[in-house]
Amino acid sequence: MHGYLGDLGLLRDRRFALLLSARTISVLGSAFAPVALAFGVLNLPGADASTLSAVLTAESLPMIAFMLVGGVIADRLPRHRVMMAGEFVMASGFFALGAMLLTGWTPLPALIAAAALSGVATAVTFPALTGIIPEVVPLDRLQTGNALLGLGANASRVAGAVLGGGMVVLFGGGWALVMSGALFAAAGVLVALLRLEPGDRRRGEARSVLADLRDGWREFSSRQWIWVVVAQFSLLVMAIQAAHGVLGPLLAKESLGGPLAWSGFLAGEAVGTIAGVLISLRLRPSRPILLGVLLCLPTALPYVLLGLDAPLWVIVAGAFVFGVCFDVFGVLWQTTMQREIPAESLSRVSSYDILGSMMFGPIGLLLAGPAAGWFGTEESLLGCAVIIVISTLAALLSPGVRGLRAPRPQAAAHADLR
């Protein structure tokens, strides 16, 4: 029963509690941002969907450009310090965006520069987060630890989606972005309090960055299940970025009722992620990657419903299904990577994972605005759903995806003892 119900005793561990608190607060800051940034930019004089596409693309491109370097840094330096720096840089970017919206000084190059700063911070933080979890959580409790971190993050997404939309309506996008910056700063302080044993830290070696990247690539490319799913997600994320970042908010503004309607969509998705993480606390599939990829098929549902002009409550229900499936996939994926990849290479492999998964995201953001003009917003959302389904079916053809098996609970416990 221990392996299936999860060991909530992790919550009494000081290091895990600090990591959980920091991650939860950081995600709360992130959850304020989509509604605040989308409608803050769309409400600027002369702004349109292409303006929003430019700002969001400016955030994504630096994240992709610096992701591999972020993986090398996180494998060389103490990961909690890398995360702390990332949170503080993220806070700076959102403080700058909020200040510009509040003062009315919003030249597009300045908005792009502030958005790019947050993209660099994300590139530094994500690989460190993946790598630090096995340093804090025992091997046989990894799925429980990932699920609890997901539970805190998803609760924050629910709160952030609701509070963010309300704050935009009552006070404007500028104040909501300032609040995001304050939350990132608070997360950085909590991460600074996280102390790892000297033996847990990754110490730099007299090696070049290119040598480290080659070693990480060998670990990444030697596992078919990783690179196939990453290739799948490069297309899937492109579609999600276009739909979530531009097309969904645009349709909400045109016909669903504006920011509160879109906040309802995001809240439905976030509630689904909470249900998904509760499921993942108990779920122990023998083929975790196969199940995770299968769960990507229903993530097309909300875009189909948006494209067919379904009632708002039906669209929110579709967003709930999206959240459940995506979160179960996320816990299974993170846990499998942390079990299968050597600890000294985990952040670099994670950086290749994130880079590959996100590399077409800016294309989705960049094309979403023009596509809405060329084909129509609803038609473009249906196109996003088609891309998700086709890329997922292609990934299921891989023997590595279908065949990778999880270790038995007893084997994981013995490995942890060693």
Automatic annotation (TrEMBL):
Pfam families: MFS_1. The keyword Protein biosynthesis does not apply. Residues 10-403 form the Major facilitator superfamily (MFS) profile domain. Keywords: Cell membrane, Membrane, Transmembrane, Transmembrane helix. It comes from the Bacteria. InterPro entries: MFS, MFS_dom, MFS_trans_sf. The chain crosses the membrane at residues 20-42, 54-73, 85-105, 111-133, 145-169, 175-194, 225-247, 259-281, 288-306, 312-333, 354-374, 380-398. It is a multi-pass membrane protein. It is found in: Cell membrane. PANTHER family: INTEGRAL MEMBRANE EFFLUX PROTEIN-RELATED (PTHR23513), STAPHYLOFERRIN A TRANSPORTER (PTHR23513:SF11). This is MFS transporter. It comes from Nonomuraea composti.
